[in-house]
Structure formats: C-alpha cells, structure tokens
Amino acid sequence: MSNLIEGRTGPWEVVIGLETHAQIVSEAKLFSGAATAFGAEPNTQVSTVDAAFPGMLPVINRHCVEQAVKTGLGLNARINLVSVFDRKNYFYADLPAGYQISQYKSPVVGKGEIELDMPDGETRRIGITRLHLEQDAGKSLHDQHPTMTYVDLNRAGVALMEIVSEPDIRSAEEAGVYVRKLRSILRYLGTCDGNMEEGSLRCDCNVSVRRPGGALGTRAEIKNVNSVRFVMQAIEYETRRQIAILEDGGSIVQETRLYDSHRGETRSMRSKENDFDYRYFPDPDLLPLELDAAWVESLKRDLPELPDAKKARLVADYGLSPYDADVLVAEKSHADYFEAVARGRDAKLAANWVTGDLFGALNKIGAAIETSPVSAAALGDLLDLIQDNTISGRIAKDVFAAMLETGKSAGTIVAERGLRQVTDAGPIEAAIDTVLAGNADKVAEYRAGKDKLYGFFVGQVMKETGGKANPALLNDLLRKKLAG
Amino acid sequence: MSALTRLTLVEARDGLRARQFSARELTAAHLDAMAAARSLNAFVTETPEHALAQAAASDARLARGEGGALDGVPLAIKDLFCTKDILTTACSRILDGFIPPYESTVTAKLWDAGAVMLGKTSLDEFAMGSSNATSCYGPVENPWRRRGDNRPLVPGGSSGGSAAAVAARLALGATGTDTGGSIRQPASFCGVVGMKPTYGRCSRWGVIAFASSLDHPGPITRTVRDAALMLQTMAGHDPKDATSAPISVPDFAASLTGDIRGLRIGIPQEYRVDGMPHEIEALWRRGVEWIRDAGAEPVEISLPMTKYALATYYIIAPAEASSNLARYDGVRFGLRVPGDSLDAMYENTRAAGFGAEVKRRILIGTYVLSAGYYDAYYVRAQKIRTLIARDFQEAFTRCDAILTPTTPSPAFALGEKQDDPITMYLNDVFTVPADLAGLPAISVPAGLSDDGLPLGLHVIGRAFDEETMFRVAGAIESAAAFTAEPQR
Fold first, then answer.
1. Which of A138, A159, A183, A260 is nearest to A18 (CA)?
2. pLDDT digit string (tens) for B186-245?
3. How confident is the model at residue B1 (pLDDT cuts 50, 70, 90)?
4. What distance in Å separates the CA atoms of residue A332 and residue B106, rounded to the nearest whole number?
5. What is the pLDDT of residues A306-321, one digit of tens each?
6. Shortest CA distance to B183 belongs to which of B463, B440, B475, B464?
7. Start-end ranges of CATH 1.10.10.410 in chain A?
8. What is the mean pLDDT of chain B?
C-alpha cells in the first residue's frame, strides 16, 4: 500500500509520531491521596499537596506505577527497574507548584511496539519510544468572568501516562488506527478508560513531510487533539498545509500548533524560539523509583489477554474471519459478549448476530454493550430457538426487535405471539395450494421459464403462513408443487 | 531572671514529673522572659494563650501520671515549620497572612509528647542566610556582646531566632533547620548546642522547603543531653515524606555514656583553611587534646573534595530553591499584588514579596538549571556532591567521628559582612559538607573568643550513627565545661 501524496511537484511522504497522554485509571492522584472522579464540583478534589501548599511533599501512588508497568508490558516494552522523576518548571496559574512532576531522562518504560491491522489486511508495526509517568495540571477557565480567570485544580496531580511513538506512522489513516489500537490495549488492561470526550486520552501529533526516502523534514507539533477523528483531520490538514508551503518554495517553521475542530484547520501557537526552557532536574522530594523484578514478572504473568491474542484465538477457536474478529476485539466487552453468546453454539451465526443485529440496535438506541437491553444469555437463547428450528432466522429478527422493546425472553415472545415455526407439511402445502391457485397466471409464466418468480411465490406462501413456515420445508414443498 | 528559665530541658522535665513546679509556672516564666527580651527580636509570633492552654493540659496529664516525653516543656519553633492555625511565614512577605491548615510532622510529634509552644522564631527569609538579617521582620540580636563593645551582633542564621531564644533563656529548646549550617552556625554564635541529624531521620513534611535534598530539621538546646532528648521525639519515619528513612530510632540519651575510650576521631587536614583566626585554630587544638585526654585517638584524615563543597552547595541549593519557591505566585495563598495580566501579577507579587537574598538565589538557581548551563553547573555539582560523600565514607573507614570547628569566626556585628555575599557564604565552610553528605553533625559550645564570644566545636558522625556523634559531643561538652552566659 502506498501512502504517498501526489503534489503539484511530485510525490510526498508524511512522517508522523504521536505523543498520547492517557489518564491512569486510579481512585487517587499520582502523588496525593486526593480523589480523581470526573465531573466533580470545581476544587472539591484537591489536597494541600495538589495545591502546592508550603511544606507539602509528594508521595508516589503505588497503584499508578503498577498501571504504568502493566501498560508497558501490554505494549511489549522494556520495563526500566530504575526510573527518575524530574521537575518540569514553568509558571502557569493552573500549575500550582510552578513545576510538573514528570519523567524526563529515565522513564519507567522504554522501547516497545504496537501492531496495526490496516483495513486492507496489511499489518504495520509502530515502535513505541517510551512511556513515562507524569501529573496533570489543573484547568484554567477563561469564560466565567469578563476580566478574571478561574482555576479548577480537580485535575491537578491526576496521574497520566505519556506514551510516545516512534515517527513510524505514514498517514492520517494509520494514525487513526494507531490511536484506536492503543486505546483498545489500554482498555483491555484497565489502565486507562480511553474516554476522549472527558479528556482521558489526548494526542499531540508531530507531523512533517519529505520526498519519499529523503531526509526528515521540519516538524510541527499539534497539541492536545481529543478525538480519533480530529487526529486524522488535523494530520490531513497539516500535511496539505506543509506540502503547499514547500511546493511554493517556502520552508516549515518548527512550532507548536493548535487544531481548531470548528474550522478544521491548525493554527500556530508558539514557535520554537518562544519555547519554554523547562529547566528539568531530578525532583529532590522523590527518590528514584526502583521496581522489584519479581513484582514486574508477576504483573506480566497476570496480564489479561490482549486484542491481538484474542483476535488470533477467535479466528482459531471459533473459525471467525479476521475481519469479524477484528470488529469484535476492538472492545473487550464486545468480545466478551460474543464469546458468551457463541459458547456451545454456531459461532458464525453468533458473530453475525452480534456484529450485525445487536451492534445495529445498540447504535440506534445509543446504548453501550454493558447496558444492552438484550443480554448475551438472552441472545443465546434466541439463537438456540433458531438452531432447534423453533423459529426461522427471519422470525428471529422480529423476536429480537420485540426483545429489545419489551425486555422479555425470546421463548416468552415466541409463545405469546404464536411465532413457533410450522414444520408440518400439511399446513404449508395448504398455503402453497392457496397461493398457486390465486396466481395461476404467474404459475404459468414460471413454468414457461421465468425463474425469477420463484422468490415471489416464497414470499406469498410465507405471508400466507404468517411468516412461520420452516423455510427449508417450504422450499422443498414449493419446488415440488411448481414442478407440477 | 527566674530560676525556672535557667533549667536545662532535662532538669525541667524531671522537675515537672516530680511536681516541683507546674507546667503553667514554667511556661509563664518563659513568657515573662520573652516579654522582657523583645528587643532581641527572636520571636516573630508569640503564642502565650496557646502556650498557657497547652501547659494547663500538661499539668492535668502530669497530675494523672500520664505525661509524655516532653510534657510541659516550653519550646520555640522556627517559623519555617507549619503550625496549624498559627501564622507561618518563613519570615517572608510573600507568605503574608499565611495560616496553614496543617501541622508539620516534627512539631506534631513534639505536641504529641506534651511539649508547649511559646511562639515562632525568626529566621533568614526562607532560611537563606547566615546572619538572620534577611528576615522580613528585621534582624535578630545575639544576646552576647563583645567584651567592652555594646554593638549588637548577629545570632547567625538561618535559625538565628531559635538560637538567640535558647541562649537568652527564653525557651528550653527550639527547632531549627539546617541546609548549609543553619542550625550549627547560629548555635555556635550563640553559645548553645545545635544538631542536625542524618538526612531522612526527621521528616520534612510541613517544613517550608528551601533546598529539599539539603533541608534537615533538628534541635537547638543548651546541652547535648537536651538535644538527644528533643531529637528522640522529633525523629522517626514518616510515610508522608518519601525521603524519610524507614529506620528505627535508637535511644539517643542512652548513648551519652561519657566514655569515648578507643574511639578514633578524624581530624581533617583540609579544614585548616587559609586565614582561619588563631582563636579558632587554638580551640580546635584544645578539642583534640580533650578527646585524647578522654581516651579517644585523634587520627589525621583527608577530605580532599571539601574545597569544592561551598561552590557545590551554592549551585545545588539555589537550583532546588528556584523551583521550590515557584509556588509563591500570588494565586492561592500569601501575598498577591495585582497586575494587568497573569505575568504582571507574578512579577508584581514576587518583586514585592521576596527580599534581595532570596531573589539572588532564585536567579542563581534559574541560571544553573537553564538549557546550556545545566551540564556545566548542576550536573557537575551533583557529581562533586557524590565525591564529597565518598570522601566521608572513605574517612569513616579510618575513624568513628570527625572533629572540626563549627565556624571560621565568632559572631560578627550587624551589617559587618552584608556588602559581600561571598564573605557571608564563607560562614558555612565547615558545616556545608555534612549537609551535602547528609551526615549527622552537632555544634557544642567549647570556649570563648579573645573578645569573649562563644565558639563551637563541631562533631560529624556516620550516617544514622547519631549515637557515636552524641557520645563524642558529650565528652567535649564535659571537658569544655562551658558555663559562660550572655550578658543580656
């Protein structure tokens, strides 16, 4: 697959690296005992440590370290048994201490890798440079007062993982697949909820363009992009912008840019010359973080099955197509649901129902699978009724719709509405006779060679039986009758 | 002067337990002494009502026989320790009106042991200084005067208020913090005992930070035994301070056997600095004789990296300070001077809130951490710091404790060394290495200068071996038999 972009003056290649900030799933902040729940009243989840009161000291939250190490293991990355927390110094109203505690030279996680399954079936490997722990800043609210800025410190001190990719990504589409895949891995691990709307996952996109195989171009960094769609749009825009400048004989300025999703464009925030000097140095309040190798091993042993392994297993054990497996493993809850339905049943049938009817229905009512009105067990019961010929696949669709609406079980709906499939030849034959008698002209046409009319007869007979005729038996009998 | 204020801390504790006097009487005597000595400017906040209430509670406990280790003992607290609901300023305008909603770990331990707080003592602003002259509350006077000279002298710094208060019999003991010598130098200038334990022995939680990797809380008292008793209560692992050592606290007073026979005492040859006054040199020689007479063996040791200690300190301490003091921005607490923009507010607030010495150190610290200078200054300083610690480790294979003078001079007059910061910084030349290496060290009053000012000898111990350090200090204290008292 070629990702080259044809410009006015020839082909261009885009080079992308992503820095993803993932909020760690944790009850408490990275260095204080304060709570982390989203959406609380402003400044209600702030300890004197978070507000950087005089004499307050940070103490590392062990759970957050565990989450970072698990994530590193999930990215097949090297775990650094010794890492160091540094201070990143800059002044801002929502940064209470005047520095952010981060890991600069010695991150807790080193090189790793993510495998991307591209829609065209190709597999791409994207290197992970590092993952480090850091604390989030608070939030400045500029729109609450005509002349004042309000500061909400609820987020200040919340634990983040910054996951940095190598500049291995070559298109906006790949970037989108990368973010989705990374989010999926984080959610499987339970280390980040991946909720981009709430800001739990944000991306900085480093974008540059070059002639294919040429030297790397100057990059621009697009800060804080908060959805997969925006990541792709921002990169698309930025790529076109840079190519246009270069093709007009200009040069790219190394700078930080913002993505404006309303206008669909990136805008300059500050150039490198105006960049802060963060004066990083090791935080003297914190000793180097030392991990026990046996502890890391035990985390590795207890790691849950991750998307790649699950996909391979669904293909191998259930005979699913790679495509269906891919769709199902994107969310662990989807795969879990599928497996609960498929266990002991026709897996292909289960996959079709889950990815087709169920996902369609959930999409329509805007429900997540966790709150689906039809549980995996209930859907399983419905499939059992299909498989033991109690109802036809067609009737099953109606039963499913009724299940969604009423919450009743498939068996109850079939019984209440008399939807049990007709498997006796007698009533079906009678229905066929009625239909053929009423459509003598069409029967004649069919027999004269107009095969297409067969479907018409099937439909009419189904209608005559209220949809309950066993389709196989109906076919069998109808063909015989039409053959005369 | 009341007889009650002339007691040592240990004597007072024993008298309280024997019900010879009440905690209220003891506290009232000290409050009276404080009122009579306000001209020293040792206290920046007096808390008499709080003290009398604590004393009354102490009396009730003592009557029930439930007294804690320091029950009823009146103490002064350096205004760098956050005290719940009581103004805490670091003697800086930038903390104008700051009342902490929490109590520092060290002071909480003192109150839990029954101690009584008399008030908060002055210090050089944010503990940056060696004269207590940079306090926003004005300078503190040393209760001592030169013989035949009535000019006021500095008490040393930064814990100058605490040292002056203990020397003037305004408190039985006081807390201090030592970053480059801030407990030991003022103790030496004021003729009292000042000790800083091993880094990690006393929690820094709730102590306003100057330089986190160098800040050591410790006691200032009139005797070595008092220091041991006070440290006993102040020390201990604190899970709220990640640099606090999870090591059990030994019985320090039990180490004061007076017996130092067989101990090898290191005499570092490099501490014979150029231009050291003869009286300091003579005192040091006397100290060596005392320990020899007590049966210990003086051994020549070498600490070759010592000559870089001061330069190293004046890179690392300002670097950490520049970052630690960034939180004083006018946004959340303390002083705010408004401006047209956020940056203007920062500039106005910090310009008005910080004194000249603090600004100087923030500038130095910002400079040495800046891109392009970081490796040349900060990284090299850290390497030398490691080498200095290694020097001590090496020396301690040949000796059990180290003996040096505490300061290169006795107390000087107010304004005498103000013009040149470098001369001022030289005050810490003997004390800084133990801070860089995190080692326990103590200053013991050991004699008088030619013009009648107290001079201290300085004992440095191995990490977490305060016991040997105390034992040697106790022997020096006995031999020196220092009984001189300030005139005022």
1. A183
2. 999 999 999 999 999 999 999 999 999 999 999 999 999 999 999 999 999 999 999 999
3. low
4. 50
5. 999 999 999 999 999 9
6. B440
7. 425-483
8. 96
Residues 6+ apart with CB under 8 A from B38: none
**From 3.40.630.30, 2.40.30.170, 3.30.750.24, 1.10.10.410, which CATH number describes the A425-483 domain?**
1.10.10.410
- What are the C-alpha distances in Å from B172 to residues A435, B72, B270? 113, 11, 36
pLDDT tens digits, residue range B308-341? 999 999 999 999 999 999 999 999 999 999 999 9
Quick one: pLDDT at residue A1?
A: 46
Residues of chain B with C-beta less than 8 angstroms from the C-beta of A54: 82, 88, 90, 95, 98, 100, 208-209, 327, 333
Is the CB of residue B44 less than 8 Å from the CB of residue B125?
A: no
By a Cβ cutoff of 8 Å, what residues of chain B touch chain A?
81-82, 88, 90, 95, 98, 100-102, 104, 204-209, 211-213, 239-243, 319-320, 322-323, 325-327, 329, 331-333, 342-343, 346, 366, 369-371, 374, 378
Q: Is the Cβ–Cβ distance between A115 and A308 less than 8 Å?
A: yes
Whether the pLDDT of residue B425 is over 80: the answer is: no
Q: Residue B451: how many CB atoms within 10 A of its CB?
A: 12
Give the C-alpha separation, A334 to A356, whole Å. Answer: 12
| A55–B319 CB contact, under 8 Å | no
Gyration radius of chain A over CA positions: 30
Neighbours of B97 (CB within 10 A): 9
Active-site choice (B130, B135, B158, B188) = B158
Q: Cα B453 from chain centroid?
A: 19
User: What's the length of chain A?
Assistant: 484
Kindly determine whether residue A54 and residue B374, on different chains, have CB atoms separated by under 8 Å: no
- The H or E element that residue A203 is part of is strand A201-210
Q: Which site among A31, A53, A283 would you substitute to test the B interface, given the most B Cβ atoms closer than 10 Å to its Cβ?
A: A53
Closest listed residue to residue A189, CA positions, set A352, A283, A69, A340 = A69
Nearest to B175 by CA among B90, B89, B103, B80: B80
**Strands A281-282 vs A86-89: parallel, antiparallel or unpaired:** antiparallel
Q: Model pTM?
A: 0.91
| Closest to B93 measured CA to CA, from B402, B385, B487, B359 | B359
Cβ distance of B326 and A277 shorter than 8 Å: no
Residue B422 has pLDDT above 80, yes or no: no
Closest CB to A98 among B98, B207, B326:
B326
Mean pLDDT, residues A149-158 taken together: 95
Residue B100 to chain A, least CA–CA distance (Å): 8
The answer to whether residue B78 is catalytic is: yes
Give the gyration radius of chain B's Cα atoms: 21
Of the candidates B92, B122, B182, B244, the residue annotated as catalytic is: B182
The residues on A that touch B, with CB distances below 8 Å, are 48, 51-60, 87, 89, 91-93, 96-99, 149, 151, 277, 279-281, 284-287
Residues of B in contact with A56 (CB under 8 A): 205-206
> By mean pLDDT, which of A427-441, B142-156, B168-182, B434-448 is the weakest?
A427-441
Quick: pLDDT tens for A192-236.
999 998 889 999 999 999 999 899 999 999 999 999 999 999 999
Identify the structural domains of chain B with CATH numbers, from first to last: 1-488 (3.90.1300.10)
For residues A125-144, give the mean pLDDT: 96
**Is B243 within 8 Å of A56 when comparing Cβ atoms?**
no
Contact B402, B283 (CB under 8 A): no
Nearest to B205 among A55, A91, A281 (CB): A55
Checking DSSP bridges between strand A10-23 and strand A5-7, what pairing results, if any?
antiparallel
Contacts of A151 in chain B (CB under 8 A): 331
